[in-house]
Amino acid sequence: MHLDSLLELIGRDAPLFTEDLRKHEQTLAAEIADSRFLVVGGAGSIGGAVVRELFAKNPRALHVIDMSENNLAELVRDLRASLGYTTDDFHAYCFDVLGPEFDAFAHATAQEGKGYDYVLNFSALKHVRSEKDPFTLMRLIDVNVFLTKKLLDFSRSIGAKKFFCVSTDKAANPVNMMGASKRIMEMFLLDEASRTAVSTARFANVAFSDGSLPYAWTQRIQKRQPIAAPNDIRRYFVTGREGAQLCLFSILQGSDREIYFPKLSENLHLITFLSMAERYLKSIGYEPVACESEDEARRRVDELAAEKKWPCFFFKTDTTGEKDFEEFYTDGEKVDWDRYAELGVVQNEAFARREQLDAFQDSIDSMKRSKAWTKSDLLRAFSELLPDFAHKETGKTLDNRM
Question: CB under 8 Å to 61, separation ≥6 — which residues?
């Protein structure tokens, strides 16, 4: 999708961070060209966007790991077809960092003695719907928390200058277990100082990223199915490239224990999913038609499509874990507002004791050994670390929606 069209869909006429990029672009490019990068989860929407930004600036080495064979193949095709062969030491690996393959990879890296200057982690289970059952929820904890910890330990073992892991706006005062898992991830990241600095970023929804609701609308149109959207939820949206640029500022300029986020401005404002859905349909030549039920919307696809119209079901949110509003920092966090024009920086001291984090990990490990745990067990473990965690449980999940 062309940038101007994408910006129009999210209610903007200009990209973010232009002033900050203009001021720092040469410094960022010089650091990239002189550094070796390992990017985990590099074939996803944001990871892929970061890989593209890095690749274009010809780093000394750029290695990418991702579990998705298809996404990884498409990433390489896209880079070769658009940018060619600017980076000589480029390699794409397909395996799970939580598996034994990464242990062998880490051993080989140590044996070769080359290592990485920057280790970046974009692996995440990011859907609120992932907390619908205790098994998927355990996988969410493994990926969002313990995979991150494993990569942090690896980064420290090879003497990397920076470890970066993407967070989420939903980690600030979380109301769902996905957001809470990211907050706990931040606690593990920021618990102690070391030679390897750690930084992260919280940002808004990435417009039309893989798996997102707007991306789902594109799939519904291709499959001649109705689209659905909540009519009472408003969110901030950034483009994939803006998300990548925010991450790169944090990666390359962030000090230890800093969290970067986009400042709110006239360029970054809340937009409803309903409004965005209507704009999307009009952009592809269809008039949206609101239906009273999912059944009506499914039934009327052929009838309305023949008239260049499209059935929509807009509904009031009643599913577990949906946050009423988004925020990038909490009242208790110290924020540097002056360093950048459009970026804010949360500056942290360690905000969890090591014994608390060890107790959380021991609790999760004990559940795994027992081969039996419930969502309530996991929620109890979360609450031990996050006593103010205001989990919103309604008994319904997004799988109850179209």
Answer: 36, 37, 87, 89, 90, 114, 116
Q: What is the pLDDT of residue 130?
A: 72
Residue 377 is assigned to a structural domain of this protein: yes
* Spatial separation of the C-alpha atoms in residues 120 and 125, rounded to whole Å: 16
Q: 229 has which bridge partners?
A: 314
Among 202, 213, 190, 178, residue whose Cα is nearest residue 327 = 202
Helix (H) or strand (E) holding 137: helix 134-141
Q: Is 292 exposed, middle or buried (0-12, 13-18, 19+ CB in 10 A)?
A: exposed
Total domains present in the chain: 1
What are the mean pLDDT values of the chain's consecutive 10-residue runs (402 residues total)? 79 91 97 98 95 96 97 96 89 97 96 94 83 90 95 96 89 85 89 84 87 93 96 89 96 94 83 93 96 97 97 85 72 92 87 84 97 94 89 68 72
- Tokens standing for 328? 């990038």
Calculated CA dihedral for residues 288, 264, 20, 62, nearest 10 degrees: -60
Q: Whole domain around residue 343: which residue ranges? A: 16-206+238-269+324-402
Supply the pLDDT for residue 342.
95
Q: Locate 185 and state its tokens.
A: 């991830």
Cβ neighbors of 325 (< 8 A, separation 6 or more) are 234, 270
| Domain presence at residue 290 | no
**For position 393, which CATH number holds?**
3.40.50.720
Locate tokens 């062998």: which residue? Answer: 104
pLDDT at 335: 94
